[in-house]
Amino acid sequence: MLGADATMLLNDCPLITLVLDTAGSIVFANAQASDFFSQEGSIEGRAIVDILPDWPINPTGKFVLRSRSENTRQLKVTTSFSRVDNYPTRTVWIQPVDNELLFSTAAREAKIRLRHVIEMLPQAVCVFDSHDRYVLWNTAYEELYSDIAQYLKPGIPFEEILKNSLASGGIQEVVPDHEQWLTERMAKFRAPVSQEEHQLLDGRWLRYDDRRTPDGGAIGIRIDITELKQREEWLRQLFEANPMPMLLCDGNSLSILEANHAAADFYGYDREAFLSRKAYEGVVT
Hints:
Elements: H1 4-11, E1 16-20, E2 26-29, H2 31-36, H3 48-51, E3 62-66, E4 72-84, E5 87-96, H4 100-120, E6 124-128, E7 134-137, H5 139-144, H6 158-168, H7 178-189, E8 193-199, E9 205-212, E10 218-224, H8 226-241, E11 247-249, E12 256-259, H9 261-267, H10 271-275
Antiparallel strand pairs: 1-2, 1-5, 3-4, 4-5, 6-7, 6-10, 8-9, 9-10, 11-12
């Protein structure tokens, strides 16, 4: 419902901000709202009374939030009415009336700095919270995964994005079995460290580097290694086609890792026999 400019503006707002439709359903929650109501899970699409049971607010604008754990928080709530694409909406502005506001402001400032940092990086970067939900991502990430860019929003689970990509048919990898691929992908994503390389349908190669942070969140980096792979292939072809016998050996153990065709012809071994020997075992004289 909200345009890109309005979404960015509300996400940068220091106040917890919700946008409601005429039925009282939450159609947008900014990053501050997703953080503040994190214990409630995803709140977009839910009724406002689900997370603020005493809604509507009283005339003073003071509100007591009772969480599922029966904890209470004092909130100051104000609302305003507007129209988005000719649809009437109600914007709810929430401000904690305690020291939590100071912490949330500091967290917001830290998030803004982090956003600027990852935006400067040439690699595609995404940041997740401890519940595997998107927090931040840079423009390079949106451009790399253009098939899911329309679904990206703070608070959406990573697994939901993967399911959307599979359902749309826009996923850039070869996926013979959707369910198996999804299970394996999430298992790797939830590991402390996960690094692997994938070739995309258009021929490009990506290196996936996912790492868990101390707070249980995750940072993912996608690096285009297509040129590196092309150089590796060029060197492999040069190695294979070289008329001189050539062996590639481990620097420590001298175990033979590769042998070209000229070496096989010269020494009289096939490739499998070479790989079971060391360079000093009667091969090189």
